[in-house]
């Protein structure tokens, strides 16, 4: 790893984490149900979909046509159907590995004309049918490893005209002839058929008529009784991997192996004399990987002895003087004997990591051409001044994860070309002045995860070329005012500092990326965080994280400091603010593109904080106890593209808020307690239908309220009944209320008694019906309806004749009504309990409300039963015009007979006989007939 490459990689990670340049395609119209979109820094990047680890049993039906890469791995797919992928003309990469696929329909990939890589490994396929890969003319890599493939149709690979790499390892192929169709592909370069059931691998069994362009052949993890390449069918073969295999190579032919430059024999069960015989034939070999070796091949440059545990291994390296790269990782080595590497004057890269070395091997001192040395993951405890005395060309030195506790001043003094030094994860508590004098060309220095507690003044003054420095620690590192003095080229600094520190960063004029972790376990007398940053005018990236989750120190980034850092583009504060920052915090930072504030209490956040940030493109406010997004509607965030609001307390979202964010293309609202009712109907509809903003994992948002919806999915809530026009609904509702009020008022004023009567009529009807069924007689012959002021006439004239002389049973309300019973119920029972109703009509009768009700009730019975039950008796002459207001009375007089007391004169006996005759008549209909003569009678004429 070069210094520039390491530094740039760190920078790129920072940019990616801030989600600044996220550009989803505008055609992605809503959140996907089972996939998430993976973004790239590149503004014109293709669309990558990740649908892995979702427990899917079928291919999602909402894969966008614009997708270029789709991951469906680590699911529970069992079958691929022809229609599963539709028309995905732009798809280039498809991962289907680690499922349970047993069958793939022919033509399932027929429309994937752009697909270049297909992974179907770790499944349960048994057969490769004829048209399985139809349409994949652009495919260059096919991975079918770790299946149960036993049969390959001769035409299975015919469509794969561009295939370069085929991986068929760990299947159940039994005959080498099974791979004959593969070797006929014109562009095949790499073939892996390791760990199959081949008993032999001989080129004569392949029966190829033409040569193959194969360059790499992997036949590892196999047991071959015979292995031979005896025909000129692999003229371009450069590498063969026999790792962990047992075989007998029959008649290795030198001319046929003249292009072999790499052979891997790691952990093979092959006699060493046979390996030597093979090596003599492969006289062009440049890279060798094996357990035991002798370096007698003059062209050999790379030797990989990884995972070897030969105790005599070092002794066999003495003759390997021509090597340029030597890998001896994981060899259980505790010490490298002197002289093992001394002859390797050309060695440029030496990897001795993951062993048990306790010190730097002595032979390294003689490797003057060494450029890359890896000693990480060992048990080295000390570094001596002579360890690197002659490695003056060393450019990269990796010593991380050892037990180095201290450094001497002279340890790196001769490393004039060193650019990368990794001493992380050691036990360093002091540097012993090692960096006060160099290395002068060092650009990358990682001292993180050590035991240092203080950085003295000038400790790095010899590192004038340093661009990257990491001094982060699990402990707080106290820094002094001149700790970073002289580091004029430093671009990136990661440090763990006390909450209050006194460092003066005046010398870091080129610092662009500063990440600081603040602790409270150590405090200096300094003025607090941010105070020493006033001079960092070039800073673009600033990350401040408070490690103590229980801190109670109020913090507000000094406006003066941010005013100086006018080039600041990325600001991250985590667990730092106790409440919302003051509105003027960023008033001097209009260039800010990304702002992240996490783990704070922003429940009172207002729009003022964002008003100066017209260029803000990425905003992360996760884990901040936010309850509302109203502040976004008032903030000027027209350039915002990425918004993260996960892990807050948002329950309801007004979709109109996003109208104030016209450039928003990515939205993350995961893990909020959403309310699943009509208050979120607009937001739900917006997520499903908007054609610009991708809502990350929107279909996984769950309901927290109301209780009966808890655990359900927010986007599964049915919003159809929420979409009635509110104005129309209010109009209809108010109109109905008004009409109902008017109707109720009308009924109450004009028809309330009719309703009451109707109720009692119904009861009387039921009562009368039951009586008729039982055959019980009426209680009375007649009910007398009269006004109380005519009661004297009734008792003086009527009762003595009708009851005394004629013997009729009469019902009178003053005498026969049941006390305590509702009067209307008494009237109803009296009328329906009597054969006839006699109405004694006078001026006072007409004016009486109750008398009017009685005659109405009697008329109701008349019309209901169609019986002659009503007898009208006028006590006085009443002109017709006086009857006009009494519509019902006039109507009855036109159709019914009546008797007049004034007309009886002196002949009262005839009058009472007529009454008796009326009472004596049956109940048949005699409408409009005189009770005595059978003639119609007219109403009384006006006097």
Question: What does the secondary structure layout of this molecule look like, with pairings?
Answer:
Elements: H1 3-17, E1 36-38, E2 47-50, E3 67-71, E4 79-80, E5 93-95, E6 103-104, E7 117-119, E8 127-128, E9 141-143, E10 151-152, E11 165-167, H2 180-183, E12 190-192, E13 200-202, E14 216-218, E15 226-228, E16 239-241, E17 262-265, H3 272-281, E18 287-290, E19 302-304, E20 325-327, E21 349-351, E22 372-374, E23 396-398, E24 420-422, E25 444-446, E26 454-455, E27 468-471, E28 478-479, E29 492-498, E30 513-519, E31 541-546, H4 559-564, E32 570-574, E33 594-598, E34 618-620, H5 630-634, E35 642-644, E36 666-668, E37 674-675, H6 681-689, E38 694-695, E39 703-705, H7 726-774, E40 780-785, H8 791-805, E41 810-811, H9 813-816, H10 823-832, E42 834-841, H11 843-847, H12 849-865, E43 870-874, H13 880-883, H14 887-895, E44 898-900, H15 901-904, H16 908-920
Parallel strand pairs: 2-3, 3-5, 4-6, 5-7, 7-9, 8-10, 9-11, 11-12, 12-14, 13-15, 14-16, 16-17, 17-18, 18-19, 19-20, 20-21, 21-22, 22-23, 23-24, 24-25, 25-27, 26-28, 27-29, 29-30, 30-31, 31-32, 32-33, 33-34, 34-35, 35-36, 36-38, 37-39, 40-41, 40-42, 42-43, 43-44
Antiparallel strand pairs: 1-2
Helix pairs in contact: 7-10, 10-12
């Amino acid at each position: 790893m070069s210094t520039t490459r390491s530094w740039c990689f760190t920078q790129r990670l920072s940019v990616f984490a801030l989600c600044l340049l996220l550009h989803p395609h505008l055609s992605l119209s809503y959140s996907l149900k089972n996939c998430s979109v993976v973004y790239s820094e590149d503004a014109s990047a293709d669309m990558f979909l990740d649908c892995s680890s979702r427990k899917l049993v079928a291919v999602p039906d909402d894969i966008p046509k614009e997708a270029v890469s789709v991951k469906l791995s680590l699911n529970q797919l069992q079958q691929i159907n022809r229609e599963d992928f539709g028309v995905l003309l732009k798809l280039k990469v498809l991962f289907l590995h680690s499922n349970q696929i047993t069958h793939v329909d022919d033509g399932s990939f027929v429309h994937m004309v752009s697909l270049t890589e297909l992974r179907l490994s770790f499944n349960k396929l048994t057969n490769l049918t004829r048209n399985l890969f139809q349409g994949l003319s652009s495919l260059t890599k096919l991975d079918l490893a770790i299946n149960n493939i036993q049969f390959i149709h001769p035409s299975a690979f015919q469509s794969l005209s561009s295939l370069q790499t085929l991986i068929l390892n760990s299947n159940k192929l039994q005959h080498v002839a099974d791979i004959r169709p593969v070797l006929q592909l014109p562009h095949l370069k790499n073939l892996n058929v390791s760990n199959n059931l081949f008993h032999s691998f001989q080129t004569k069994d392949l029966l190829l008529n033409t040569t193959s362009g194969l360059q790499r052949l992997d036949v590892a993890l196999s047991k071959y009784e015979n292995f031979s390449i005896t025909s000129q069918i692999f003229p371009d073969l450069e590498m063969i991997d026999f790792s962990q295999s047992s075989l007998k190579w029959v008649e290795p032919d030198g001319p046929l192996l003249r292009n072999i430059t790499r052979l891997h024999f790691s952990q093979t069960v092959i006699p060493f004399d046979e390996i030597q015989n093979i090596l003599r034939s492969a006289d062009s070999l440049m890279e060798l990987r094996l357990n035991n070796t002798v370096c007698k091949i003059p062209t050999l440059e790379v030797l990989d002895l990884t995972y070897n545990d030969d105790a005599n291994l070092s002794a066999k390296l003495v003759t390997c003087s021509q090597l340029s790269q030597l890998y001896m990782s994981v060899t259980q080595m505790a010490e490298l004997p002197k002289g093992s590497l001394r002859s390797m004057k050309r060695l440029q890269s030496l990897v001795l990591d993951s062993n048990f070395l306790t010190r730097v091997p002595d032979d390294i001192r003689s490797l003057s051409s060494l450029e890359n040395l890896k000693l990480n993951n060992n048990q080295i405890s000390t570094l001596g001044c002579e360890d690197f005395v002659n490695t003056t060309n060393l450019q990269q030195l990796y010593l991380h994860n050892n037990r180095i506790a201290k450094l001497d001043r002279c340890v790196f003094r001769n490393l004039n070309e060193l650019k990368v030094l990794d001493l992380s994860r050691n036990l360093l508590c002091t540097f012993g002045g090692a960096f006060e004098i160099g290395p002068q060309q060092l650009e990358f220095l990682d001292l993180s995860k050590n035991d240092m507690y203080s950085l003295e003044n000038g400790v790095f003054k010899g590192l004038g070329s340093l661009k990257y420095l990491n001094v982060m620690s699990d402990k707080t590192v106290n820094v002094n005012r001149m700790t970073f003095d002289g580091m004029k080229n430093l671009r990136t600094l990661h440090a763990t500092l006390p909450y209050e520190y006194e460092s003066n960063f005046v010398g870091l004029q080129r610092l662009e990326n500063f990440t600081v972790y603040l602790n409270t376990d150590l405090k200096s007398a300094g003025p607090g965080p941010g105070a020493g940053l006033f001079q960092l005018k070039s800073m673009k990236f600033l990350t401040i994280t408070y490690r103590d989750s229980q801190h109670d120190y109020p913090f507000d980034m000094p406006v003066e400091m941010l005013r100086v850092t006018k080039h600041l583009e990325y600001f991250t504060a985590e667990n730092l603010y106790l409440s919302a920052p003051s509105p003027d915090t960023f008033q001097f930072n209009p260039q800010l593109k990304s702002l992240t504030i996490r783990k704070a209490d922003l429940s009172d956040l207002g729009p003022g904080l964002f008003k100066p940030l017209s260029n803000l493109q990425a905003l992360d406010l996760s884990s901040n106890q936010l309850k509302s997004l109203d502040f976004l509607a008032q903030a000027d965030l027209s350039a915002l593209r990425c918004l993260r609001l996960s892990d807050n307390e948002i329950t309801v979202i007004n979709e109109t808020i996003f109208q104030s964010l016209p450039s928003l293309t990515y939205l993350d609202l995961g893990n909020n307690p959403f309310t699943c009712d009509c208050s979120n109907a607009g937001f739900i509809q917006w997520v499903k239908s908007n054609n610009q903003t991708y809502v990350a994992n929107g279909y996984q948002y769950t309901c927290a309220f109301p209780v009966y919806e808890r655990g359900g999915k927010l986007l599964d809530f049915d919003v159809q009944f929420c979409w009635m026009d509110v104005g129309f609904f209010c109009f209809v509702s108010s109109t109905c209320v008004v009409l109902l009020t008017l109707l109720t008022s009308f009924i109450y004023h004009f028809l309330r008694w009719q309703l009451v009567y109707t109720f009692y009529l119904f009861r009387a009807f039921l009562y009368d019906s039951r009586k008729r069924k039982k055959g019980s007689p009426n209680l009375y012959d007649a009910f007398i309806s009269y006004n109380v002021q005519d009661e004297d006439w009734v008792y003086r004239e009527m009762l003595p004749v009708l009851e005394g002389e004629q013997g009729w049973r009469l019902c009178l309300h003053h005498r026969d009504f049941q006390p305590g019973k509702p009067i209307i119920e008494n009237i109803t029972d009296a009328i329906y309990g009597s054969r006839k109703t006699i109405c004694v009509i006078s001026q006072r009768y007409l004016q009486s409300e109750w008398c009017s009700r009685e005659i109405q009730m009697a008329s109701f019975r008349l019309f209901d039963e169609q019986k002659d039950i009503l007898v009208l008796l006028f006590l006085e002459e009443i002109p017709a015009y006086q009857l006009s207001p009494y519509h019902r009375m006039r109507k009855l007089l036109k159709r019914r007979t009546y008797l007049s007391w004034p007309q009886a004169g002196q002949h009262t006996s005839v009058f009472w006989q007529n009454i008796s005759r009326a009472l004596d008549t049956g109940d048949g209909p005699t409408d409009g007939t005189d009770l005595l003569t059978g003639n119609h009678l007219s109403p009384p004429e006006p006097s």
